[in-house]
């Protein structure tokens, strides 16, 4: 039986369960690049640029990398890494630079912080779908007004990623990101779908239809492979949009191996 999220014992009363903790340098570079690009205006206009990295794992390296990347958009950004495991918090404290970069024990309750942006990657896979939706609600209830959550999953070296962008209104967008030369077909990303979608990749569900359509576009775009995998991915994205799918980005993002759609396109 799956364990329910709980209030971990201790002074911080952190809500949730420890993750596996695996991490690697540059593992989250694709979502960071998307945030500094797509969300640049959002970050620039934020009254209080506090960003939380939830569940950063055994090493704080990806939190440090995110802080450095966000500073290119908002130099006064403050990044707070949260972990339930006290040893991981101590590892973060060793590289902290408060108030610009700090680490604290915390979980879905966000340790009392009210961030404008929250990144939670590879955190919810260990939970049931119901628990994952409950975690969404808990985190959204603790965000600053107008805040956004980026929740998703990636492989161990960050070449295959998907994520959901959420606001207080619920899920807004769904993004797929990959290194095009590292896939056989776009549906290779299915194994990295977020918890809200990974069990929905079956006939009759929208996310299954999306991946099937994207694979069909990839096959049609095969002649573009002579110009390189990126060119084939760009053409696949163009074909997907031309077939009526609500693609939100453009060629500039497609060339980075990304495709973002309205959440309604994949909503269970």
Q: Considering DSSP H and I runs of 4 or more, what fraction of the residues is helical?
A: 25-40%
Distance between the termini: 24 Å
| Averaged pLDDT | 93
Largest sheet: 8 strands, mixed
Overall 3D geometry? Answer: globular
Instruction: Assign the structural class, choosing from mainly alpha, mainly beta, alpha/beta, alpha+beta, or little secondary structure.
Output: alpha/beta
Low-confidence stretches: 1-12
Describe the strand arrangement of the main beta sheet, using strand numbers.
3-2-1-4-5-6-7-8
| Rg, alpha carbons | 18 Å
Strand percentage, roughly? 15-25%
Order of helices and strands: HHEHEHEEHEEEHHHHE
Number of alpha- plus pi-helical segments: 9
Find the count of extended strands (DSSP E, 2+ residues): 8
Provide structural commentary:
- The longest helix is centred in the last third of the chain and has 15 residues.
- Helix 1 packs parallel to helix 3 and helix 7 packs across helix 8.
- Helix 4 links the parallel strand 2 and strand 3.
- The chain has about 270 residues and is an alpha/beta fold.
- The N terminus is likely disordered.
- It starts with about 30 loop residues before the first helix and ends in a 6-residue tail after the last strand.
């Amino acid at each position: 039986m799956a364990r329910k999220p709980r209030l971990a014992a201790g002074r911080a009363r952190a809500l949730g369960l420890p993750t596996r903790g695996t991490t690697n340098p540059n593992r989250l570079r694709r979502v960071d690049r998307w945030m500094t690009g797509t969300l640049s205006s959002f970050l620039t206009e934020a009254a209080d640029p506090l960003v939380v990295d939830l569940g950063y794992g055994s090493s704080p390296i990806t939190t440090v990398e995110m802080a450095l990347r966000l500073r290119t958009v908002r130099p006064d950004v403050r990044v707070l890494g949260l972990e339930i495991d006290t040893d991981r918090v101590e590892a973060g404290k060793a590289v902290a630079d408060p108030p610009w970069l700090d680490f604290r024990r915390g979980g879905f309750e966000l340790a009392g912080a009210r961030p404008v942006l929250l990144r939670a990657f590879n955190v919810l896979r260990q939970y049931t779908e119901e628990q994952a939706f409950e975690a969404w609600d808990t985190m959204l209830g603790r965000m600053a007004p107008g805040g956004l959550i980026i929740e998703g999953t990636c492989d161990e070296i960050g070449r295959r990623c998907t994520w959901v962008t959420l606001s207080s209104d619920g899920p807004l967008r769904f993004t797929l990101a990959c290194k095009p030369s590292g896939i056989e077909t776009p549906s290779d990303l299915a194994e990295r779908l977020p918890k809200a979608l990974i069990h929905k990749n079956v006939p009759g569900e929208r996310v299954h239809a999306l991946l099937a359509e994207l694979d069909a576009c990839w096959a049609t775009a095969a002649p573009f492979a002579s110009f390189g995998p990126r060119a084939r991915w760009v053409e696949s994205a163009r074909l997907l949009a031309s077939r009526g799918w609500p693609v939100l980005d453009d060629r500039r993002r497609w060339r980075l191996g990304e495709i973002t759609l309205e959440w309604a396109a994949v909503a269970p």
